[in-house]
């Protein structure tokens, strides 16, 4: 469902990405590893259509990102991809509920799916949170600043999953968590993605997580770019 | 819409800086509108000083000087108009009414204006309003004085009180006409014109004071023998009286009509006004009842407005003596032009105050940008377009400015309502509170628009950031 062909991208003439071919199947759980500065986050930005490659093609769900206008790419991202980042995933001035339902502001599709699933956005948010191991419904009205980092990451995961997007892209979502929480978080994320048949692309330089995944690639091996400075 | 609610929540998250920006804009708006209001109000109160008078005639000279002295009672013009000229002019066919004005005396710093009773019938201000009596009644007694509301309030005068008039404008050097006391017959209601600070007496009384003055000088040789002649034996006074009579014999036969007046007044004396005892001088003056020889100005109303220009040129080319006639509305407008420079300076200052307010907003938004790049990256990841991010900033600036304008207008009216009473009572300045003028609305629209335009700077910056940052959060 994701096909990459001859993708080349450079930040200010500094080549970062040069991938001849990469394809990811529907429902696949893919682990991407690579050292710092190898271009992992850059690749995810390319997949999200937030930055435009100099050449090559990214095709997602049979649609070529190259052929879309930038605003089409933005709504495509809103409709089909959920993101989880390393830390600070949440908007500090919005409540937990508002953070989780944020994708509905930009995607009517995902709003409809969430509504048809639970009847209301709030119920769906509570359902997702309890699936992710947060069972306190009162938490939903709280400010996100009152949550622990582990709780924040789960709220971010709930946001990424709301309205069943086709793909969840996670960029080092567990690096702020201690080992116990890391294992639990990954387990829950896996279960939910399997249930919803969501394709999961998981980026980390923590090789200990590799064994959870059915597929993995090492970006440094795949990437044809010679990295000058590996931090 | 969703973006605007995000902008709003983001603002509330930064309450302190939000309120500081809000108040700086509000205060600058209040200042700007306040200055506009003050400008129009001073202008209109200035323009309201006189109305319904078609021409003011004075001796030849600067028109502003004539206007200042006759309407605002500031400065003085020489009283050189022959009373005969006044009569001639008042009889000319185009003239509906003419009121003689004579000035030059004062009472405790307040102007004393001499005129005749027709003044109350014809003088009008603002919207052709006539002077209204607050207490007492206008009396045609020769030594009755009608005082303005300010005079009554500041000097704490009441009906029946005695007033001594001083020759000349100053409170110190002037000569006191204390042998001719006046009694207060009426206190006028506030008109918010110079009349509020004025005492109005009859022309005859003014003439009596001045002939009395001459009398003293005439009696100078006698004074060498008896220095304080003022409160001397009657025989001494009699001398004065004869002297006065002698001097003004010529005036006495000016007009048959005057004798008639004097006769009428003899009746009045019989009423023994307010229990006041007339002094010798007053008694003599009543008998003589002399109109003054010369006056300062004539207020003229014409039968038709079309006659104004021809009457003006007739007066300006008057053969018997050099005169000039001004059209009050035109002269007021001309005089107001003097203030236009101050007006421009004030405008420039207030415009800069508003600019400073908006720049404050700009710097506060710019400072918030860095900490908000993360927020923007999150929004980008859930599908926000760079345009949304741009809109977030513009929306924020627009909202802050709009709220600032609302608060500023509210503050303005609060200020106007609290200042209205003190301004009227302490400064005699009546502040009319009106709806915002179309000019005000225009200014507010410009401010709102400039806020949006200024917000393009941070908007464009964050747009660029969000394009280059993508979704990567690096800090
Ligand atoms: N916005 C940007 N502008 C210019 N260069 C950038 C930008 N973002 C990343 N780069 C450069 O691209 C290269 C790859 O960065 P990227 O963030 O993709 O690495 P990464 O693999 O995600 O590293 P990490 O594991 O530390 O997150 C780096 O050399 C970096 O300097
Ligand atoms: Mg990265």
Small-molecule binders = adenosine-5'-triphosphate, magnesium ion
Query: Which radius of gyration of chain A do the C-alpha atoms yield?
Result: 17 Å
Q: What does the radius of gyration of chain B come to?
A: 33 Å
Which residues of chain A sit in consecutive blocks of at least 5 with pLDDT less than 50? Answer: none
The count of domains of chain B is: 2
Which terms summarize this structure?
heterodimer; A: Rossmann fold; five-stranded parallel beta sheet; four-stranded antiparallel beta sheet; 37% helix; globular; B: 475 residues; alpha+beta; two-stranded antiparallel sheet; 58% helix; 14% strand; binds adenosine-5'-triphosphate
Short overview:
The complex is a heterodimer of chains A (231) and B (475). Chain A is of the alpha/beta class. Chain A is 37% helix and 23% strand.
Overview of this structure, please?
The complex is a heterodimer of chains A (231) and B (475). By secondary structure, chain A is α/β, with parallel strands linked by helices. Chain A has helices at residues 40-47, 70-80, 96-100, 103-106, 108-118, 121-131, 149-161, 179-196, 219-222, and strands at 2-11, 14-24, 29-33, 55-60, 63-64, 81-84, 167-171, 199-203, 215-218. In chain A, 37% of the residues lie in helices and 23% in strands. In chain A, the strands form 2 sheets. Chain A has a 5-stranded parallel β-sheet, sandwiched between helices. Chain A has a 4-stranded antiparallel β-sheet with strand order 2-1-4-5, with helices on one face. In chain A, strand 4 and strand 5 form a beta hairpin. Chain B has helices spanning 2-13, 15-47, 63-71, 83-91, 118-122, 149-155, 203-218, 220-225, 234-252, 256-270, 280-288, 307-316, 328-381, 386-427, 438-454, 456-469, and strands at 55-59, 81-82, 95-107, 110-115, 124-125, 129-130, 133-136, 144-147, 162-163, 166-167, 175-176, 182-188, 198-202, 294-295, 297-302, 323-326. In chain B, strand 5 (124-125) and strand 6 (129-130) form a beta hairpin. Chain B contains 16 helices and 16 strands. The A-B interface holds A 41-42, 44-45, 48, 50-51, 70-71, 74-75, 77-79, 83, 85-94, 102-103, 105-107, 159, 171 and B 2-3, 6, 9-10, 12-13, 374-375, 378-388, 470-473. The complex binds adenosine-5'-triphosphate (ATP) and magnesium ion (MG). Magnesium ion (MG) binds at residues 40-41, 171 of chain A.
């Amino acid at each position: 469902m994701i096909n990459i062909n001859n993708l080349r991208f450079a930040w200010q003439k500094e080549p970062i990405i040069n991938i001849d071919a990469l394809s990811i199947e529907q429902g696949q759980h893919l682990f991407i590893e690579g050292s710092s500065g190898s271009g992992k986050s850059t690749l995810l930005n390319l997949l999200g259509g937030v930055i435009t490659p100099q050449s090559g093609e990214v095709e997602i769900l049979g649609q070529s990102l190259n052929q879309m206008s930038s605003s089409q790419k933005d709504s495509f991202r809103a409709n089909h991809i959920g993101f989880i980042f390393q830390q600070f995933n949440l908007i500090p001035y919005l409540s937990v509920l508002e953070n989780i339902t944020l994708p509905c502001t930009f995607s009517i599709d995902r709003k409809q799916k969430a509504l048809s699933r639970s009847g209301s956005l709030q119920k769906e948010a509570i359902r997702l949170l309890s699936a992710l191991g947060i069972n306190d419904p009162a938490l939903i009205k709280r400010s996100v600043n009152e949550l622990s980092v582990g709780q924040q990451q789960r709220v971010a995961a709930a946001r990424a999953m709301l309205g069943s997007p086709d793909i969840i892209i996670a960029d080092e979502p567990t690096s702020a968590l201690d080992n116990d929480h890391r294992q639990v978080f990954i387990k829950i994320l896996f279960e939910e993605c399997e249930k919803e048949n969501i394709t999961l692309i998981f980026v980390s330089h923590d090789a200990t997580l590799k064994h959870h995944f059915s597929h993995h690639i090492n970006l440094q091996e795949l990437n044809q770019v010679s990295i000058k400075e590996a931090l | 819409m969703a973006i605007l609610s995000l902008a709003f929540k983001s603002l509330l998250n930064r309450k302190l800086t939000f309120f500081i920006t809000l108040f700086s804009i509000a205060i600058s708006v209040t200042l700007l509108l306040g200055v506009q209001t003050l400008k129009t109000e001073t202008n209109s109160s200035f323009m309201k000083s006189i109305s319904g008078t078609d021409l003011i005639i004075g001796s030849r000279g600067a028109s502003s000087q004539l206007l200042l002295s006759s309407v605002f009672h500031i400065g003085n013009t020489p009283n050189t108009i022959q009373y005969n000229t006044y009569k001639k002019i008042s009889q000319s066919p185009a003239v509906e009414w003419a009121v003689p004005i004579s000035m030059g005396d004062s009472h405790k710093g307040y102007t004393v204006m001499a005129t005749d009773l027709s003044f109350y019938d014809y003088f009008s201000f603002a919207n052709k309003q006539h002077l209204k009596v607050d207490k007492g009644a206008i009396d045609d007694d020769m030594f009755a004085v009608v005082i303005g509301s300010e005079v009554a309030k500041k000097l704490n005068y009441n009906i029946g009180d005695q007033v001594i008039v001083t020759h000349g404008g100053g409170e110190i050097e002037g000569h006191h006409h204390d042998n001719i006391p006046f009694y207060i017959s009426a206190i006028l209601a506030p008109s918010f014109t110079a009349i509020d600070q004025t005492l109005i007496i009859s022309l005859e009384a003014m003439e009596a004071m001045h002939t009395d003055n001459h009398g003293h000088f005439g009696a100078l040789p006698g004074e060498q023998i008896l220095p304080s002649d003022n409160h001397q034996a009657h025989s001494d006074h009699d001398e004065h009286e004869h002297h006065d009579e002698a001097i003004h014999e010529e005036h006495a036969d000016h007009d048959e009509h005057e004798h008639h007046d004097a006769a009428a007044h003899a009746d009045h004396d019989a009423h023994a006004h307010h229990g006041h005892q007339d002094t010798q001088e007053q008694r003599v003056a009543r008998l003589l009842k002399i109109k003054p020889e010369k006056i300062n100005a004539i207020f003229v109303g014409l039968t038709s407005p079309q006659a104004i220009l021809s009457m003006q040129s007739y007066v300006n080319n008057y053969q018997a003596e050099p005169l000039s006639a001004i059209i009050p509305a035109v002269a007021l407008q001309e005089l107001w032009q003097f203030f236009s420079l101050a007006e421009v300076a004030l405008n420039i200052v207030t415009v800069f105050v508003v600019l400073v307010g908006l720049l404050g907003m700009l710097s506060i938004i710019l400072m918030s940008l860095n900490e908000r790049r993360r927020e923007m990256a999150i929004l980008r990841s859930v599908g926000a377009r760079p345009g949304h991010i741009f809109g977030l900033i513009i929306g924020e600036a627009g909202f802050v400015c709009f709220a600032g304008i609302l608060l500023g207008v509210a503050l303005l009216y609060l200020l106007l309502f609290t200042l209205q009473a003190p301004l009227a009572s302490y400064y005699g300045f009546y502040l009319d509170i009106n709806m915002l003028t179309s000019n005000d609305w225009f200014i507010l629209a410009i401010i709102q628009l400039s806020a949006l335009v200024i917000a393009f700077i941070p908007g464009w910056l964050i747009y660029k950031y969000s394009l280059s940052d993508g979704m990567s959060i690096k800090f």
